[in-house]
Amino acid sequence: MALKATIYKASLDVSDIDRNLYSDHSLTIARHPSETDERMMIRVLAFALNAPANNDQGLLEFGKDMWEPDEPCLVQKDLTGLLVHIIEVGQPDEKRITRLCSRAAKVTVYSFSSSTPTWWAGIASKLTRLRNLTVWQIPAEQSQKLAAMTQRSMSLQITLQDGALFIGDGTDSLEITLQRLHGQD
């Protein structure tokens, strides 16, 4: 018998002072049996960091990447169905990144493993020509602390100001230092 996804609920209160964006999001997250708390929370964080100011550019939605290998982690399509933004978490190989960059106007990757510097050093020179790609590193210690905030029902306050990212759940708080490895805003 196949294992089923575990459902998590997250209420996000996002205050992105840098973009003058204040929004609330109620998310239902299907966590694949093989997905860790850490990876799931990075997906939630990626959603919060990239949620559009309004729906005029389309909705940002979770993809089916854990069930369908060719699907992205998060995807934003415009109102005509065109891919605007693809978001991946982890360490996709250079062929996958190149393929995604050919499909969407913007591609963002969030890597959170302690092996990120080694992974990036191995593929960086092959991806420098991709102008629509941005790659971020989240320090492993910080992503593990974020994973410790996982609950089946979560209420997270996320504040981004002057490049500093703060996350709180009413009990604990955490500062995450995003390091840009490639790309620009």
UniProtKB/TrEMBL annotation:
Name the source's superkingdom. Answer: Bacteria
Q: Which Gene3D superfamilies match?
A: Restriction endonuclease-like alpha-beta roll domain
What Pfam families does this protein map onto?
A: YaeQ
InterPro entries annotated for this entry? Restrct_endonuc-II-like, YaeQ, YaeQ_sf
Write down what this protein is called: Uncharacterized protein YaeQ
- What taxonomic ancestry is recorded? Bacteria, Pseudomonadati, Verrucomicrobiota, Verrucomicrobiia, Verrucomicrobiales
